[in-house]
Each structure stands twice: as structure tokens, then as C-alpha cells.
Amino acid sequence: MKLPSHDAAAREVPEDRSHRVMLPRRAPKAPLRQVARRLLMALVVLLATVFIVWIDRAEYHDNADGTVDLLDCFYYATVTLSTTGYGDIVPYGDSARLLNILLITPLRVIFLIILVGTTLEVLTERTREQWQLKRWRTALRDHTVIVGFGTKGRSAVQTLCATGLSRDRIVIVDPSSKVIEAAVAEGFAGVVGDATRSDVLMRAEIQRAHQVVIATQRDDTAVLVSLTARQLNKKANIVAAVREEENAPLLRQSGADAVITSASAAGRLLGLSVHSPSAGTVMEDLIQQGSGLDLVERPVVKAEVGRSVRETDDLVVSVLRGHRLLGYDDPEASPLQSTDRLITIVRAAPTEEADLPGRQSMKPTLPGTSVSPMRRVDE
Fold it and tell me: If both were cysteines, with which of 6, 158, 256, 334 could 308 make a disulfide (CB 3.0 to 4.6 Å apart)?
């Protein structure tokens, strides 16, 4: 299914650079360090050869004076490893010839490999990348695909990471190779290409993804991406952002489970901040995960079953019962059932102690989250 792209950035991608999958990798070493490392390896091979010749120097013959000293050992090692072989110093004893076969010849091969290491490194790097890509595709399951890594996409990724999602479970799709390179540098896997095309999304293994976040720059692009994603994955949870509120119903019809109107949401937050700056600050804090107050969804714990909404340990905003969303003041919300899920306001757990190696936070956390419950004043 090939659909036209409307992102300006997509037209800037050269054909030979599209549809690439880029995996996180270690930062390359500096060129001078690589050269110094190879020189050190060559020196070790040379010294090993000199040592082998020195301990068996009585089995070697020098056409100049008949004896082999330390300088002759270095000379023989250099001309042997470089495959020059002048023939003025030769092994004539059985042990010397056996050591040449078993030790010096492998050292000569290693020395040559070091000399042509640049070419071999390119070949091995390409093979390693293909092997890593194959292993990554095989192991990738129930991951999250982020389409678009602009301001909205980055904010979505930060929120997902703050809620405990691992970076290796996130795949970024963007038409700009520079954007994907930046994402890879941050530890995410990336796919360069137009997400309205099925083959690009399939490279992100969207058919096995658990959720898809669509954060493109244009609403029509978001609709096309949603259609393509839903065609490839019938079960994934698709969340999309649109600029204009009138496009939200169209995006829902395209297969999106939830649609966020970015322009309208920002406008409402602006209006709230004008009326009450403190309320606007609280709302901004709630949607920013990992600090201050967090708005999270969690299951009902065993001790809360049968209780009313107001008897829980933290502040419950809504109760999700099946496909119904009940307010905290709805008479049907209480008593709580074991299959319910609670939308709660909690205090984000401090990360300073948790980030220290070998230490764990002593504060209790909510099930399925990394945040601490808000205790009431009387507790």
C-alpha cells in the first residue's frame, strides 16, 4: 500500500538513504586511538616473534657471521612478518623450522591482518550490523512505535520513559536521517522513511507492536499513517495528535483509538492559565511525568476491593470499569471491583536514591507504576 506523503521533510530524503533501520550502538573511538591501538597490537606481535627466535637462536644461521644476536632477531622478525624474506638469516634446525610453522607463520598472518585492518573492519562492521539487525527483529515484541520525532514525538517519548518503558522497546520512524541519527544517539532504534508507506512501518515491526504514537507535523499525514498502521496491525493501541479539532473524527475513523488535539489543548491550557495561573501550573505538572504530581492509571489492589472511591490511599479522579469511565463522584463508581482500573493523582517517587547503584527506594510504589501514592493529611 503506497500512499503519497505530505511531510516536507520526506521529500528531502535521498532514495538511497530511505527505509534504513538504525540501531543504537556505542560511540566510535577517535581515529588516533584506533591507529594507536593497531600499532600497539603490531608491536606485541613483533616482540612475540623476536622472543620466539631469541629462545631458539642456536637453530638459526646468519650468512654474515654465522651467529644470531638480539639485533639479528629483530631484523629477522621484521623481514619475516612483512613477508620480505631476504634469506640471509634462515632456520636450519628442526625445532626452529617447527616453531616457524606453528608460531611464526600464524603471527605473520595476524600481522598482515592488522596492516589491512581498515578494510577488514569495514567488512566485519557491515556483517555485524546485519547480524544485530536480524537479532533485533527476532527479539522485538510488544514494543512502541513513535511516528515523528519532533517536539510532540520527543515529549511523548520522555513521558513513556518516565513511566518505566525501556528505551530498547521504542522504535522511532521519521523521514529525516538527521532526526533518526539524533534518536539513535539517545539510545533508540530508528527507521528512516515515510511512515505512510507500508514497507517503512513493517521495517519498524509495527505488525508486532503493542502501541503506536503518531506525532506528525500535518493532519493529513497523520490520517494516512493511521490508516496504514491499522491495516498492518489490527490490535495495536494507536494514539495520534492533530492540530485542528475538526480533523479528530476523521482520524478516529482511520483507526486511531485516541486522538489528542494539540492546538485546542494548548489553547485550553492558555485560557486556564489566564483565569488561574496556579491551576495552569498544576495541569502542566500533571501531564509531565516523573516530577511533582503524576496522573497515572493503575489496577485496583486486593485491599481496595469492596471499598468506596474515597477510602483508597490516593486521590482517585476516575474509575475505568470495562469500557465505561466513571467519575469519582459517580454513585456507580463505589464499591470498587477487582477488575476496575483507577485514574489517580500520585506523587512522583524521587529518583535520586533509586538511581544509586545497589540502592532501592524505601518508599512504597503503586502496582504497575514507579510512583508513590499520595497520603492524606491525617496519615
Answer: 334
Any alpha helices (H) in 218-294, and if so which ranges? 219-232, 248-253, 262-275, 277-287
At residue 289, what is the residue type? Q
Q: Are 160 and 238 in contact (CB under 8 A)?
A: no
Provide the 3-class DSSP secondary structure of residue 69.
Answer: coil
Sign of CA dihedral 197, 200, 203, 206: negative
pLDDT digits (tens, 9 = 90+) for 145-200: 999 998 888 888 888 888 788 888 999 999 988 999 888 888 898 899 999 999 99
d(CA 365, CA 360): 12
Which has the closest alpha carbon to 211: 242, 195, 235, 184?
235
Question: What is this structure's pTM?
Answer: 0.56
Q: Are 152 and 262 in contact (CB under 8 A)?
A: yes
